[in-house]
Design brief:
heterodimer; A: about 150 residues; 6 helices; about 0% strand; B: about 180 residues; mainly alpha; 2 domains
Chain lengths: ~150, ~180
């Protein structure tokens, strides 16, 4: 995959940072405004997918290596589970034992804030990995694979 | 709340037309784009119904799916499909659709459908009433999916995790050589 034309690549360089910032906003303010970990994670994944489409696989992996994406994916899922276990200290799985804070502030609502971030890491990294797997799959052409299977 | 039925019916007609085109068209790329048009109309419908949370998620996932499906479609050389009617499939779907309508009539028939915009609120009434005081999350949707129903969200995360493992295991480059010695670390 070589990438797209100069126009697409230039515009991508402009917008990718803004897309990531918007995704981070959607995640961090998920408990106050519409959005949340899932939507924000997909937006951040879309930024890296845009990079991959415009510049090719190498440019995207230079910014977010495959290994790091694997770690984010697993760490997000694990962090979600661990926060659930912390709730066990109050008696129930996923009990909101963290301090609630002040209403309508960024640091409020106890465990919802860290859970949003964990979900965002999980969703963003895993969707990026699925797309990367499909892109890698494409590099070996379909026909070559079938011929290989038949031979 | 003002009457939003005309807008919703317009979108509904658009979605039905899009779905029919997606099923009936011969060209795979047209089918993919029709499906996405249906998804975007659904996102607008969510906005009209006052659910920006779901609208954002629907829109974002639709964009991602559109990219993946278009890339998958242009990969295939022959993008037109021969459609053939399978009588058995049509009969089976008609039977199941009839069963669905029958069960719906059994459940709702005696009491009638709830009014539009006034759903049955047995469990969710508690969430709506205690969402803000109990969790301090101003966004009621987040307070439901990450506090009251966090266990469900854990399941959702597990599903995603499993799907990624499955996709990577099926599509990876290394270790795919069949019949040859595969290096095991």
């Amino acid at each position: 995959m070589k990438g797209m034309t100069l126009i697409v690549r230039t515009i991508t360089d402009f917008v990718v940072a803004f897309i990531v910032v918007f995704g981070a906003y959607i995640v961090l303010y998920g408990h106050l405004t519409p959005g949340g970990g899932f939507a924000g994670g997909v937006i951040i994944a879309c930024a890296f997918i845009l990079l991959m489409l415009a510049h090719g696989k190498e440019a995207a992996f230079a910014r977010l290596p495959e290994k790091a994406a694997h770690i984010f994916d697993s760490a997000g899922a694990l962090a979600f589970l661990i926060i659930g276990w912390i709730g066990l200290s109050g008696g129930f799985f996923f009990l909101n034992v963290f301090g609630r804070g002040e209403q309508f502030r960024l640091l409020s609502s106890g465990m919802i804030f860290p859970l949003n971030i964990a979900i965002a890491f999980k969703v963003g990294a895993s969707l990026f990995l699925v797309f990367a797997a499909l892109a890698m799959f494409r590099r070996r052409s379909f026909r070559a694979m079938i011929e290989e299977e038949l031979s | 709340m003002e009457n939003i039925a005309p807008q919703l019916y317009t979108l509904l007609v658009f979605m039905v037309v899009g779905s029919v085109i997606a099923v009936e068209t011969k060209n795979l790329l047209s089918a993919v784009i029709s499906v996405s048009a249906v998804g975007f109309a659904l996102s607008v419908a969510f906005l009209f119904m006052g659910a920006p949370d779901i609208a954002i998620t629907q829109l974002v996932v639709e964009v991602l799916v559109l990219i993946i499906l278009i890339r998958g479609t242009i990969l295939i050389d022959n993008t037109s499909v021969e459609s053939h009617r399978d009588t058995l499939a049509v009969v089976a779907s008609l039977i199941f659709f009839g069963l669905l309508l029958g069960f719906g009539a059994m459940i709702f028939g005696s009491r009638g459908f709830p009014e539009f915009g006034e759903p049955l609120m047995r469990v969710s009434r508690v969430y709506v009433q205690t969402g803000l005081p109990a969790t301090y999350a101003a966004n009621i949707v987040t307070s439901v999916i990450l506090d009251f129903r966090a266990y469900d969200t854990l399941g959702e995360a597990t599903v995603l995790f499993t799907s990624v493992i499955g996709a990577l295991a099926l599509l990876r480059k290394d270790g795919k050589a069949r019949g040859k010695e595969v290096a095991v670390a």
